[in-house]
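ok so I'm stuck.
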Amino acid sequence: MQRPYRAPYRCSPAAHRHQALTRAARPSEIYLKPASSYVRPGVAANFATVLESARRRGETALGYRLHDHSQEAPAYGVRLNPPKDAELVLEAHDSVILLAES
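replied:
not stuck anymore, here's the structure
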């Protein structure tokens, strides 16, 4: 009896990068780095732009932290896995949350 055909599992490019990083022998850590290193401060962009900028540096962007909302519970300005196409304006004092090699 033959087994039914199952298409190979395909994941998104971001998930593939995440899997590659978690399987790698190199340890990775989570960092908060200045948003101005990834996008122009005060200029409208989207999170896909942040992701691409981080990718070019060998990092994976996980989200961002808005300094002006850092004292507001419950998230304290942290946004993880935001929509990739939503408009985003990061200022110089905001941060990008990254997974990067130590």
